[in-house]
Amino acid sequence: MNKAKIAWITDTTASLSKEFIEKHHIHVIPLHVVINDEFYKETIDITEQEFYERMKNEEGKFQTSQPSINDFVELYNKLKENYDCGIAIHASSLLTGTYQSSVMAAGMEDFKLFAIDSQTGSYPLSYLIKKGIDLVDQGLDAQEVVNQLNALRDHTRLYLVPSNLDQLHKSGRVSGGQKILASLFNIKPILSIEDGAAKIKDKVRTEKKAFAWLVNQLTEDLAAKTVRKVAVVHANHLEKAAQLEKMVNESFPHIETEKMMLITVAGVHTGVGTLGLSWVCE
């Protein structure tokens, strides 16, 4: 029996490199970023860095928007001619409607799709895609791959520390009173992406304590689990990201690290200068 030809589909929240996308023939549908009601295709019309630069320097409204369902309809119409099925892994369905649009479009085009709601984004999403490709190369069929990736979702970690509460206030995530109090007392909320949603895990008084909190979470996971790589995510703040990466390197010299830009679907709420750590427990 011939091995099924599987297409890989995701969106720009996966933060995959151009080289990886081309090497593995991954079909990436871009989300839109919206600046003062003007739409830009993420990574095509505007990079994440450019988005954060404009957020820092311009007044106005900064938002994100899911892809049009027609983008997926056109893609699946083409894919069904050359592939037996597809595996689609998208950002959390609680953060964007991209997953729902992908599933709906596949049904409209009668394309066999194994869809995964990653319940996350950024580094953990890229990890799931890379792991899935490895599993296919090992000979697993699409359903077996999906089962394993779904099981991995609970083992992903993504923690974010906003530099201030301006964007969280604008997006309605915190009240004006909370914003003022946080500014007065230099309070840093620590957010976690869990079960697909952003939750406030803790509040600390300084950036130094926030960094220590992040490293402590990694320490706790390493007590019982294996972590091979840690991503330092940042909303266009390379200097602070390098400081946090150095702290991780000094504490865990055996763990590989990389710096990566925070996806705009998260950064539009947390703001420029947001920092965080992300990893997957194996």
Layout: helices, strands, pairs:
Blueprint: E1 6-11, H1 18-23, E2 26-29, E3 32-35, E4 38-41, H2 48-57, E5 62-65, H3 69-79, E6 85-90, H4 98-108, E7 113-117, H5 122-137, H6 142-152, E8 156-161, H7 166-170, H8 176-185, E9 188-194, E10 197-204, H9 207-222, E11 229-234, H10 238-251, E12 256-261, H11 264-270, E13 275-280
Parallel strand pairs: 1-2, 1-6, 6-7, 11-12
Antiparallel strand pairs: 3-4, 3-5, 8-9, 8-13, 9-10, 11-13
Descriptive overview:
A hairpin with a 2-residue loop joins strand 9 and strand 10. Helix content is 41%, strand content 26%. It has 282 residues and is α/β, with parallel strands linked by helices. It is built from eleven helices and 13 strands.
Number of DSSP-assigned strands? 13
The computed structural class is alpha/beta
C-alpha end-to-end distance: 32 Å
Q: Please list the strands of the largest sheet in the order they lie side by side.
A: 10-9-8-13-11-12
Pattern of helices and strands: EHEEEHEHEHEHHEHHEEHEHEHE
Strand % is: 25-35%
- Summarize the main sheet: 6 strands, mixed
What is the overall pLDDT average? 90
Features:
alpha/beta; six-stranded mixed β-sheet; 282 residues; 11 helices; four-stranded parallel β-sheet
Summarize the structure.
This protein has eleven helices and 13 strands. Strands 10-9-8-13-11-12 form a six-stranded mixed beta sheet, sandwiched between helices. Strands 2-1-6-7 form a four-stranded parallel beta sheet, with helices on both faces. Strands 4-3-5 form a three-stranded antiparallel beta sheet.
